[in-house]
UniProtKB/TrEMBL annotation:
Signal peptide annotation: 1-22
Lineage: Eukaryota, Metazoa, Ecdysozoa, Arthropoda, Hexapoda
Record organism: Ranatra chinensis
PANTHER family for the chain: DOL-P-MAN:MAN(7)GLCNAC(2)-PP-DOL ALPHA-1,6-MANNOSYLTRANSFERASE (PTHR22760:SF1), GLYCOSYLTRANSFERASE (PTHR22760)
Family: Belongs to the glycosyltransferase 22 family.
Keyword Membrane: yes
Membrane topology type: Multi-pass membrane protein
EC number(s) stated in the UniProt entry for this protein: 2.4.1.-
UniProt-annotated location(s): Endoplasmic reticulum membrane
Pathway(s) annotated for this protein in UniProt: Protein modification; protein glycosylation
Name the UniProt record assigns to this protein: Mannosyltransferase
Keyword annotations from UniProtKB, A to Z: Endoplasmic reticulum, Glycosyltransferase, Membrane, Signal, Transferase, Transmembrane, Transmembrane helix
Length: 694
């Protein structure tokens, strides 16, 4: 029964906090890629985001093997609206099941060696504590090694030293090299106590070590496309070069006064009591004490680095609880201690509930992407940029649900730059809507949602529940108002064409931009939204559906002198005008934007004073007033209004949709009479076309 409760509590932790953080990303992304891309290594995430040091693929391969039957079944039967995010649950559940299986073996050994009552206390204490249960399903390198460590401890306590060496070799050489201190000290004690001889250690250790080394080198060299022993490089980086300290340092005794008390909760006070009652506990604790003491010399410290020792400390605490509880009738002092032994579990449980509630709000990136999936339909044309905070706090490839959406994690982009306006949606870190990060988008984007995260804990002793979890805004979901903005140049001294400047902005040379990373190859991502056409390419109209299928959102017309009949928008001096079922003469280089909504009934454009005045004087044509009539869309051969018509007069009249009459002597002065950035709303039933003079 207690073991079943262990699985139930582990599931609660998984479902309360399904998202992952950046430390878990490699194993999770690698498992995703194995499941979805198979042997197509070119699409794997680690080639684009390799991380500081390489990690082994053996763990992800084993996880994908465990998950694949469920994954195939769910996809085949399309059960419960199966989505990729269900796959993340399956991956984490498989890892958690592996840890719990190994933990169950250790529990059976505790039952066999220390008795059933101690085994019951051992499981109960573990369930009541937060960190071990929280971490056991997280795809961290430490947790990948945890099942092997638990099995090694199990065989050590049972006296099966050959099995202990094999599992230790796998854990050390494949997953976590620092375990050589922990498991190596156990082997030295066995050698010192003459429970195993040096010859036997070599007979078992050399084949075990070579097998583990060959496995990781062969597998990982294939996956990384170079000769590599991942854990060897990790050891060199962290221990020899000590570069892990770049991620923060802690005092020497931090593991003792901070990590262990938080991990064990109130049970930490019972550990020395257990060693006092049973000498066998001392033998279990000594390697843990040596490991933590030596590991403390590394400045960079994290609680998960010593998670392998928590079950051993709990064996000591369980021994104390069992002895105190069994002798509670012997004296008043023991009776008081028995109250603490039973009551402290409730205290641990309360602490676990608080920490679990806090952890739920520690993944704003995952919640933000989930919110965007709810707000926008799957059929929407979405190109979302995921900022650094979002990428580190919950976004993974399993959370990228829709294949037709583009998810981009390009780093080092400047807020408000033209690059940022290539995206239809943005996930932006900000503390409020007035934050500096949001100012560049105040007039160009709408706020769809605000995702809050954990801020601090407050206490109100007048309330029935005195603890309050306070949150603060962390991530804003933005949507571009004009889904296809007019791309304009900034004033500069050179005479480069618009397309040259545009290409310089959005088609960066990858070799010159090593620092830029994205969720897919940069140039390939850009190609999905930009397409160039030259004169010879336009023998046929541009099919709207083809552009839509290719996710192209911008088209460059380069040196085109064709009459185009297509469904897209043409950017000219009057803004974006619809050309559905109507011919437009493109007589110079243009940037053409089209809408993905073929049912659109109107567009908005921005008037720009971009007409170049001619230096050559021309004879003044006779004065004549012309009114440009609306074009009837129902007629296929609607007239073309171009410069040849406009040049017949030097006095022009344009009637806009709101019946305003704009008059001017020349085309140039007509442009000057229209205020800069004035919006003109053009309905299909009333088109007024004004072409730039050549």
């Amino acid at each position: 029964m207690d073991h079943g409760l262990l699985w139930f509590v582990a599931a609660i932790h998984l479902f309360c906090c399904p998202y992952t953080k950046v430390e878990e990303s490699f194993n999770l992304q690698a498992t995703h890629d194995i499941l979805y891309h198979g042997a197509n290594l070119s699409r794997y995430d680690h080639f684009e985001f390799p991380g500081v040091v390489p990690r082994t693929f053996i763990g992800p391969l084993l996880l994908s093997f465990l998950v694949s039957p469920f994954y195939v079944a769910l996809e085949f039967f399309n059960m419960a609206g199966f989505s990729k995010f269900v796959g993340q649950y399956l991956v984490r559940a498989s890892l958690g099941a592996s840890v719990l299986y190994a933990f169950g073996k250790l529990r059976q050994t505790i039952h066999h060696v220390f008795g059933p009552d101690t085994a019951f206390w051992f499981v109960t204490l573990t369930i009541s504590q937060y960190h071990f249960m929280f971490y056991l399903s997280r795809t961290l390198p430490n947790i990948m090694a945890l099942p092997l460590v638990l099995l090694a401890l199990n065989y050590w306590i049972r006296g099966k030293r050959t099995h202990f060496i094999w599992f230790s070799a796998g854990a050390i050489i494949i997953f976590r090299s620092e375990l050589a201190v922990f498991l190596g000290s156990i082997l030295l004690f066995e050698l010192y106590n003459k429970r195993i001889g040096p010859i036997r250690i070599l007979q078992v250790g050399i084949p075990a070590g070579m097998s583990a080394l060959c496995a990781t080198v062969v597998v990982d060299s294939i996956m990384w496309n170079r000769l590599v022993w991942p854990e060897g490089e990790v050891f060199w980086f962290n221990s020899v070069l000590n570069k892990s300290s770049q991620w923060g340092t802690s005092p020497f005794l931090w593991y003792w006064y901070s990590a262990l008390p938080r991990a064990l909760g109130l049970s930490v006070l019972l550990v020395p009591v257990g060693a006092f009652f049973d000498s066998r506990v001392k033998r279990l604790l000594l390697p843990c004490i040596i490991f933590i003491s030596l590991f403390s010399f590394l400045p960079h410290k994290e609680l998960r680095f010593i998670i392998y020792t928590f079950p051993v400390f709990n064996v000591a605490a369980a021994t104390a609880c069992n002895n105190i509880w069994m002798g509670r009738h012997k004296s008043l002092m023991r009776w008081l201690f028995s109250i603490y032994a039973g009551g402290h579990i409730a205290g641990n449980a309360v602490l676990t509930l608080v920490l679990l509630a806090v952890a739920h709000y520690n993944y704003p990136g995952g919640h933000a992407l989930a919110s965007l999936h709810k707000i926008e339909s799957q059929q929407s044309a979405v190109h979302v940029h995921i900022d650094n905070l979002s990428a580190q706090t919950g976004v993974s490839r399993f959370t990228q649900l829709y294949d037709n959406w583009i998810y981009n994690k390009t780093e080092h982009l400047i807020p408000g730059s033209e690059d940022m306006f290539l995206f239809t949606h943005l996930l932006v870190e900000a503390k409020s809507k007035y934050s500096q990060n949001l100012k560049p988008y105040s007039s160009s984007h709408d706020i769809l949602d605000v995702i809050s995260g954990f801020s601090y804990i407050s206490f109100n002793y007048n309330s029935f529940v005195p603890i309050r979890i306070k949150k603060k805004p962390m991530i804003f979901i933005l949507k571009r108002i004009n889904i296809l903005p007019v791309l304009t140049d900034k004033a500069d001294d050179d005479n480069r064409s618009k397309s040259e400047k545009f290409e310089e902005k959005v088609l960066p040379d990858i070799e010159k931009s090593k620092k830029i990373k994205s969720s897919g190859p940069v140039r390939e991502n850009i190609k999905t939204i930009i397409k160039k056409y030259k004169d010879e390419d336009l023998t046929e109209p541009i099919p709207f559906e083809q552009l839509k299928d290719e996710n192209i959102t911008s088209v460059i017309m380069e040196n085109v002198e064709k009459t185009v009949d297509s469904q897209h928008f043409i950017q000219n001096s009057t803004g974006n005008l619809t050309t559905d079922n109507k011919k437009i003469n493109i007589s110079e280089q243009k940037v053409v934007n089209f809408t993905l909504d073929s049912n659109s009934q109107h567009v908005k454009g921005t008037v720009k004073n971009e007409v170049k005045k001619s230096n050559t004087k021309k004879s003044k044509p006779p004065e004549k007033e012309i009114k440009i009539e609306p074009i009837d869309q129902s007629v296929d051969n609607s007239p073309i209004i171009d410069e040849s018509v406009l040049s017949q007069t030097n006095k022009l009249v344009i009637e806009t949709e709101n019946k305003n009459i704009l008059k001017a002597d020349t085309i140039d002065t007509l442009h000057e009479s229209i205020p800069e950035n004035k919006e003109i709303h053009v309905e299909p039933s009333d088109h007024s076309l004004l072409k730039e003079p050549k």
